[in-house]
Amino acid sequence: MLLPTLAAICILTTLAWFYLAPFSPERTSPPRVPSLFPWLGCSPWYILNPCAFLARCHQRYGPVFKVLLGGWEIVVVSSGDVISSIFSADPRHLCNDLMHHEMFHVVAGVRTNYARLHDIMIHKLFPLVDKSLSRRSLGQTTQPFARVLFSQVKKFTQNHGLRAVSLMQLVQEPLYIATNVALFGSSFPLDTYKDFHSLDKSVPYRFSRLPFWYWPSSCARERLLAQIRDYLQRGEVADCDDRFALALMETFKANDIQGLDGSRLVLTFLWGLHSNTMNTLFWLLAFLLADPDALARVRAEIDTAVEGREGKFTGLEMLLASDPDELDDPCFAILTSAVMETMRLTALHAAVRKAECDFDLKQGDTTIPIKKGEYVLGNVRAAHMDETIYPCAHEFVVDRFAGRPYRKGQIQTNGKPFLSLGGGRHICKGRWLAIYEIKVVAIILLRLFDISPSPEKSAVWSLPRVSEHSIGVIHTQDEVSVQLRLRQHEYSG
Ligand code: HEM
């Protein structure tokens, strides 16, 4: 009894201290968040709710502050310009190996051989992703994507016509399967969505080393690794159009990556490929369903484009057969803006880097000194919630990014600091794929269905709660059920 009581007293005292003490930050530049514990620093509060902790510190100490978390001195920055300069910094000065290491460990359980896997990922896999998923060549890589996606969504019309379905599964499973076919070919283990989802749900807890019932997700990970290993061992690529899969197999062969190492590398990549995109897509639908006017505007735009009223497409089938470049079009200006707005609202923190030497970050006319061995972290959420840049920053404003003339071939930021997709040399290599995929899923679902809250739950739609332990982009643990009703138009099942 003594130990738990002491622990409870300790936690309550420190919580009270954190909330009530009249904080006077140490007179350092940047200000340092005071902490009671010598090595742990503020990690108990950070781990309990990273987002709320950073928001409180931002409010108290301003846009730049230093905090000790589990032995790491971290300089947190919240201004768009400074975060951009971290993204663009020379990796010899600010290095992001740490995040990659964590991803390998947390997602795929890598404990040995890290350096070799990391080397292949950075020097072989990322350039391959960059080339295959660039705006110009995306159409060759995604050829079967929309076809497979459509056939997966159609299954919901057959099996779930009148029943409640999980919004998460509705938006994510077809996307997962179609993306895997497009990138890895149809011989990839496609019936793995449930295991992937179970692993994905555990990742934020694994990152924070929080107590969690890990057993189901660990079993899911083992099954995924075994199936991916079989896929790599077979080495079959069904179709020579599967360019990405062919190049991947060749890269693995040339570098003698096989067995468990190969499957761990692919699983880590698979998580990077799906996790943010799936969660962003879920929130796009959730925001639209919570805002009937926004939903009506996006749907009207889709109907106009699909019905060929402005001469763009003559039906859903034609739209789905088009090159991704065709969807990067002013006829989808509001939908594109809705995707950008969702990315703005869902991005958390990024740009975690370790300083390899003493380094100055520029902030306007001043500099932020970073010492060798310190870490920097970009509080993207704070930058995106800056009311001076984004009025009504906490609200979903569907046309926020549709104010200026549409610029094809560019991310539609409307000239505002937009950090959800990184920047500089580490800009997200899958950004064109992610935007294209999210748009296609939204087009298919909103064209085919009226989606309403499941009557067993509530007649009024409210946004799902944000999980305190989200990473990358916000997550939810809420089960959201919806009912689908086929709309009356060209498609009848
Ligand atoms: C909505 C979906 C996505 C979001 C919000 C997102 C976000 C990001 C961010 C913020 C970074 C920069 C991280 C940093 O520098 O610290 C990044 C990097 C990266 N992303 Fe994405 N991403 C998404 C989808 C994808 C997809 C579909 C792929 C496809 C494989 C992908 C592949 C990559 C790669 C390879 C990098 C590392 C680039 C490098 O370090 O050179 N991402 N992503």
UniProtKB/TrEMBL annotation:
Heme binds at residue 428. InterPro entries: CYP450_sterol_14alpha_dmase, Cyt_P450, Cyt_P450_E_grp-IV, Cyt_P450_sf. This is Cytochrome P450. Its cofactor is heme. Signal peptide: none annotated. One of its GO terms (molecular function) is heme binding. SUPFAM superfamilies: Cytochrome P450. The keyword Metal-binding applies. Keywords: Heme, Iron, Metal-binding. Pfam families: p450. Belongs to the cytochrome P450 family.
